[in-house]
Amino acid sequence: MEASNKSQVMLRAFSSRNFRLYYTGQAISLIGTSMTQVATSWLVYRLTDSAWLLGLVGFASQIPTLVLIPLGGIIAVRWNRHQILGMLQSLALTWLALSGTINIQCIAILGVL
Q1: With contact defined as beta carbons under 8 Å apart, do 40 and 96 qualify?
Q2: CA 6 → CA 3, 11, 83, distances in Å?
Q3: Strand segments (E) across 1-113
Q4: More confident residue, 54 or 1
Q5: With CB atoms counted within 10 Å of each terminal CB, which end of the chain scores lower, N or C?
Q6: CB burial class (10 A; 0-12, 13-18, 19+) of residue 111?
Q7: What is the pLDDT of residue 67?
Q8: Taking a C-beta distance cutoff of 8 angstroms, is the pair 34, 90 a contact?
């Protein structure tokens, strides 16, 4: 198979409008999630200068994933609100940081939620 035919086959899914919408939405969501994780880590380290607290907050934010992984399929089918909750979490983090009321406890609680 020629290189041009391979690329045509690989990009065939993008001819579907629904796939393009899905792909774009997932890309935006992933970028937002990554930005939130980096900003949270940066904020924790800046507030505390403690690598230990940085690790603790990072671990705390992964607890829901560890607990929900076994039930993930059921939850994903029946309750598709993950992206909205993630957006609200990011907005709360932004509001607390801009208002100057952010502290390590708030960041850890938002990470667990």
Answers
A1: no
A2: 5, 9, 34
A3: none
A4: 54
A5: N
A6: buried
A7: 79
A8: no
- Local structure of residue 80 (DSSP, 8 states): -
pLDDT at residue 69, as a whole number: 76
C-alpha 61/C-alpha 27 separation (Å) is: 21
H or E stretch covering 30? helix 17-48
Are 97 and 89 contacting, i.e. CB atoms less than 8 angstroms apart?
A: no
Side-chain-side CA neighbours of residue 90 (13 Å): 16
Task: Work out the end-to-end distance of the chain between its first and last CA atoms, rounded to an integer number of angstroms.
Answer: 49
For residue range 52-73, list pLDDT tens digits in order: 999 998 888 888 778 777 777 6
- Alpha carbon distance 77, 72 (integer Å): 9
Backbone angles phi, psi at 2, to 5 degrees: -75, 160
Cβ atoms 102, 42 nearer than 8 A:
no
